[in-house]
Write a structure and sequence with these properties.
This protein has about 220 residues and is α/β, with parallel strands linked by helices. It is built from 6 helices and 10 strands. The two termini are about 30 Å apart.
């Protein structure tokens, strides 16, 4: 139901539909194996995802609208999976619109998750610009990553990270209890800055294609 790019998850990216990239990246993981699922209310996506090797889950229309949260879809999928197979130990949530994952990223994130004994994790990149401001409801401006009245050298600032939407890892119990993908002991899986590009506009398709080719991300 994307408004910016119609049928966004099926647009061609380096000669493959966008969704196919995330499915194949998941299939390359030594951990995930045959536990790859695609949740959608779109019949074409359901058919194609099965063709590409994922288990399709038909998402109810009630939780498929513009205001529906990803958590509602995750809760629905988890309930169906648990009722038809062994209980899920870990959810690895890949967003199809953030396809710039290197070979090994998924397995490295899973390994780090267990090594650090985390409850949840998100992928992120170091924030290159530390001078971040926000506009308040009254139209005034506030600096949120530093104090503009007491400006310090860049070297003295603690690092900031940009959540890039590529991967979220979390325990099913956390999702059930908090209805949130993040909580408990939270960790960060660091990725390079160029991996933060996601597809929301036509221009970003070209940008992601450039990095897919330039970084040789398993291009056929």
């Amino acid at each position: 139901g994307s408004k910016g790019i119609p049928n966004k998850n099926l647009i061609p990216l380096c000669n493959k539909p966008l969704l196919q990239w995330s499915i194949e990246q998941a299939k390359s993981s030594s951990f995930l194996k045959d536990t790859i699922y695609v949740s959608s209310n779109d019949d074409t996506i359901i058919t194609q995802s099965q063709k590409w090797g994922a288990h399709p889950i038909k998402r109810p229309e009630l939780i498929s609208g513009d205001t529906s949260s990803s958590e509602s879809a995750l809760q629905h999928a988890l309930s169906l999976i648990n009722s038809n197979s062994s209980p899920v130990d870990l959810i690895v949530f890949l967003q199809a619109t953030s396809p710039l994952r290197k070979t090994g990223d998924i397995d490295s994130a899973i390994t780090q998750f267990y090594k650090e004994e985390l409850d949840s994790m998100f992928s992120a990149s170091p924030l290159a610009c530390f001078s971040i401001w926000k506009q308040n409801q009254d139209q005034s401006l506030s600096s949120i990553t530093y104090d503009y009245k007491n400006r310090q050298p860049r070297q003295s600032h603690l690092p900031h990270f940009q959540e890039n939407g590529s991967m979220y890892l979390f325990k099913p119990s956390l999702l059930k209890q908090e209805n949130n993908r993040l909580g408990g002991k939270i960790g960060i899986y660091l990725m390079e800055n160029w991996q933060s590009h996601e597809i929301d506009t036509e221009e970003e398709i070209e940008i992601c294609e450039y990095f897919m080719k330039n970084k040789k991300l398993d291009i056929d």
